[in-house]
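Hi there,

I know you've been waiting on this one. I reran it after we fixed the sequence typo, so this is the corrected version. Both the input and the resulting structure follow.
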Amino acid sequence: MINQKIKKENHIQYFSDKELLSQLRNGDKMAFSSIYDKYAAILAAKLHKLIKIHTIVEELHQEAFLRLWKIRHELDENTNIKAYLFTTCRNLTIDFYRKASKDKELERQLIKHLDVSYDPIGQLLSQKESKALAESLIGLLPPQRQKVFRMVKLDGYSYEETSIHFGVSTSTIKDHMAKSSEFLKNYIAQNPHITFAIAVYIVFK
C-alpha cells in the first residue's frame, strides 16, 4: 500500500499543469500537493523580494495556496495555475501594503528595499495587467511630452523617426524624453504607494 502511494506521488510530479488542474478540480489533494511543490519556492522568493518580514511572507504565501484550494471546484478547465497564483500573490501583496501604509515607519521599511529606478514605465507597459497604471502616470506629463513619450515607448519609434514626425530635431525629442523620465522618476519616488505597486507588477510579471 505504501509502495503504491509512493509510486502515485512520484508519477503525479510528471503531470502537466493542465492535468494537475483537472485533478485539482475533482478535489485531488495529491494534485494540490504537487502544485504546491512546483510553485511554493518561486512564490516565496518573489514575496520576499517585496516584503522583508518573514512572518508576513509566510502568511501571504499560505493564503495564496489556501485560496486556490478553496475555489478548486470553480476553476475553469483553461485556468493557468501559475498565472492564477501570481495574480493572487500580487493582489494579496498590494492589499497588505494598503493596510501597512497607515503605519509610516512600516511603510518606510517596505519601500527602502525596493528598486524601480530602471525604466519602470517601460516595464509596466510590457504587461497587460499594469498598463492602466502606466497610462495614469504618462497622463501626468504635459500634452506634447505625452505624445512624444507614447510614440517612443508605446509605438516603438526611434528618436529620429519621432523627430521627423513632429518636425523637430532629434535633440528636442531626446530632451522631451529626458525631462519626461526625470519627472516620472521623481513623482514615483515621492509617492510610496506607486513605488510599491510598480515593484509588485515587476516582480510578479
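Quick highlight: The CA atoms of residues 26 and 73 lie 7 Å apart.

Best,
R. S.
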